[in-house]
DNA sequence: TTGTGTGGTTTATAATAGTAACCTATAGCG
DNA sequence: CGCTATAGGTTACTATTATAAACCACACAA
């Protein structure tokens, strides 16, 4: 991540240690920073939550979005999906250890966000 | 942020304290989490950087993207654009105090990201 | 039997991101 | 002088993502 730009004797520039493709920050953001992903993880912090409850909590996100995000998070091992009951179908989503490990970042983001009265 | 789902005597559900529109996490993400925004801020952490140097550091992001992000960040008061030299035109970008205040979150994200060998 | 709940899927459209070529201008080299 | 490379962008066009609103099948309760 310590990119340095060097200029050679002829004035030509090169970068040492460039982020050739997404670097750590960028990769992290793509796990946690896609629209609604952070919010979803954060709302699962305390206990398993059911699909429609999550949808209600995140007023503003469509079910399709939530569904998509949950599937991504599940595929990455950050969220666990459990069918609690068939027949009257019931499903809950909860954080895995890995999912949980992202919470402190989100918590800091929340504090930062709130302390800077972002519109 | 402490959304609670209540069920009344008739089984109807409502959410108290729902994120009616984007909540703190979501708002924060939209400042810092848009594609490349975090990386740009992070690469400005040490010193003012010139446009093309930034473009070289962020191999993978187009000039258009970088330009757009820098303008957004400037508009929000997170980045300061300075014309260092006219004639041979030279411009630098650097973090403002507010921009700097986001660095610790990005630093944590970087550590988290690197410690979980994300592909 | 109408209204609610569950957990989603479908379709269509709007907003964002990405690619590559281009532009004005200066400076160095042979 | 012509060639190349630098600077800091802009333009046009395409691909990817997000959003809204309907819709499904099933269950339960009044």
Automatic annotation (TrEMBL), chains A, B:
The lineage of its organism: Bacteria, Pseudomonadati, Pseudomonadota, Gammaproteobacteria, Alteromonadales. SUPFAM superfamilies: Winged helix' DNA-binding domain. Pfam families: HxlR. This is Transcriptional regulator. Keywords: DNA-binding, Transcription, Transcription regulation. Residues 23-119 form the HTH hxlR-type domain. GO terms for molecular function: DNA binding.
